[in-house]
Amino acid sequence: MPDAPHPAPTAVRSRPRPDARLLVGLALVVASIAAVVGIVTAADEGEDVLAAPRLLTAGQLLTIDDLEVRRVALGVDGHGYLRPDDVPDAGVVVTRTVGQGELVPIAAVGDVRGPSETTIVVSLSTAIGATVRAGDSLDLWSAPALDAGRFGAPVVIAPGTLLVRTITPEGIVAATEAVRVELLVPRRDVARILHAMANGDALSAVPASLAIGG
User: Fold this and answer.
1) For FRET with 168, which of 34, 72, 129, 212 sits at 20 to 30 Å CA-CA?
2) pLDDT for 109
3) Domain boundaries, the chain
4) Architecture of domain 47-111 in this structure
5) Using an 8 Å Cβ cutoff, are 101 and 52 in contact?
6) Which CA distances in Å does 132 have to 102, 129, 163, 166?
7) Residue scoring higher pLDDT (212 or 155)
8) Distances from the Cα of 26 to the Cαs of 18, 35, 36, 39, 197, in angstroms?
């Protein structure tokens, strides 16, 4: 019998190679997405700060509505600018010129009470009451120093001052150091207070009202 014919060998189909242009296109798409994500992330890491929509000059009273909010990336050393949360409802006072479009430095604004009130540290000859706390209203009395260590009749030299803080003496002189307090006082009373301090008068701070439960 003649030999049966052998079947023709099946051709091996090779896998198609990926198109280089397709790979380049995919790479560009991935790079674009990564760039967009990076920009969005950088924006999210920014901070809201306030900018001057116009030229600001010393003495102007500003509220939050008078300023523009900008989101910027300030970095580690850029935290000296005014933020929306820094502006109280009463506003702030401009203390130095800020150009139009510039970010507003914190150092360029001050408390609205600045033109009429200021703080001063005084040494008292008598202790303040145990119930007195920061924020309480005090009348500052002065007994003028006379000769031979005598003092005259005390008078009120600054009524209705506000106690900012009591400065606790420290160190080896703590037992002998006078009581020192920081007071918020009207500017009109500053000259009288400084005169009393320079003259060595005996100063006392007396509550203008009694605390509840005191």
Assistant:
1) 212
2) 87
3) 47-111, 117-207
4) Alpha-Beta Complex (3.90)
5) yes
6) 44, 5, 9, 10
7) 155
8) 12, 14, 16, 20, 79
